[in-house]
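Morning run. Coffee first, then this:
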Amino acid sequence: MPPGAPNAGLSEEQRVYLWEVEHRGLVLAKVGFGPIAGALRRAEEPVLRAMLAADFEGRVPESSRVRPAGGGTIRVVRHQEGERPSKAMDGEAFLAKLLEYRKPFGSNRPQVKLSLMGLAPEFRERMEGPWVGTALLRMWGETAPGQPAEVALHVRYRLLRPDGDTYDAGGWLSRFEVLHGQMVMAAHPLFREVAAARGLAPEWYHDNWKVPGAKPLSNTGGAFLCDYNRDGCVDILITDTNGYTFFQGQPDGRFVDVTSAVGVPSTAPLSEMTHTVAAVADLDGDGWEDLIIGDQIYGNRDGRAFERIPSGRTNLRHLTSASGVIPGDYDRDGKIDLYVTRGGASTSASWLDGKSGSRNTNQLWHNEGNWQFRDVTQTSGTAGGSRSVFTALWLDADDDGWPDLYVPNEFGNGTLLVNRGNGTFRDVSLCEGPCDFGTMGATACDFDNDGRIDLYAANMYSKAGSRIIGNLWPGTYPDEVMAKMRRFVTGSQLHRNLGGLKFEQVGPKFGVASVGWAYGPAAADFDNDGWPDLVATAGYISQDRDKPDG
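And here it is:
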């Protein structure tokens, strides 16, 4: 951009520059990183050595921490910088260290992928000089039959001018530094796919990848757990574009389709969004869980069946325009209230100002008893501030015994609505500047076991987007606009609760940010070691299974 013309937007020169960086990144990923991954998979040290420059410098963290998990079935080794910087080593010493990471797989050839993260000329005005960047090196497979393992290394590299001729000549990699890494080994798989074997029949439900040529659907339904008959076995309501299914859990872990037998409708939804609206809650306080499906309430009849509550008996309406229904007793009167979330329309302004441009607001419905609800949105202050909201969470963020409400935002920062205990809420920001974007789900847990509930926001992430925004020239846009643009692609965020309604953003620091365009995360102690774990789902814009987003 010419001097003296700040904030004028992208010049033609900068467009060409960004295009050139991305083009060379594609070449590097294919003919540079691809052969590295292949040689590591086959443990071909001579092939790797041929890629190193004569003055190659490598670095590997000297310190490591070993943590057993899951009752000793999982072993985690973390490599990170210690108090002193890691020492430089030549090519031979570095390759020996690098192959140590592969050693646990032995003769079992692991899958290996070296993913391009960052890339730019070391000096922007010298496109023909050295280039630098970051990458993620992953190796995964089995160390022995039935014993999975994975190695993930975050690396920084330096190379000669990245084009095809450079790689053909060899000796193109001048620096490769492992910043931090993690090796995980397990005595057996932590999870195993058993849906079909347990009777859940995944082929019944919509799968974008199995409908070639059709417009992909972003919201295809969900799963809602309950114990409707109080027999101690988990039951499941599954909503889908193809209809609804209610499964009764069995003592042996199987599920039986009892949709018609218990009075749950199985017909296809009335509108595109109806299949996403469902909730499980004891709405009438009789101790049995009731169902909300679309605009309808189904009362639980002593665990035997569900009976639709006629429209004349309930005033709950207009839920088919909602994105979610979140039950909670916000005033602690013993009756379950409902917070209804709504997504907004994407506008050109929404990406920067964080507003959805939609007049549809979230709603808080107070349970009056006898299937009657009162809209207290305005008096309680819970509309959500024109945010586009996919879900919300009830939690006690300040440990005062009153349920607070976290309302995330598709187009920017969410808000924490703190319960005053008198039927009203006040807005509290989790951070001072932009810290979330593209939030398609959230979960809460005390991840560090300090007694305070933390928040995880599933956000948008893109490696290519991070490179492009990271390579914008200084002054292209105002500082406040650049701060908002950077959060477009930063990834998911972990908001650590420090107490006193103060939160620290530690998503990148704890390695839970870059999981693709995330959607619907969950938190639980999956390995029974006493520490909450995260399932950070991704794939919102993936076009096929071999090309995940992010």
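The two ends are 29 Å apart (CA to CA). Good start to the day.
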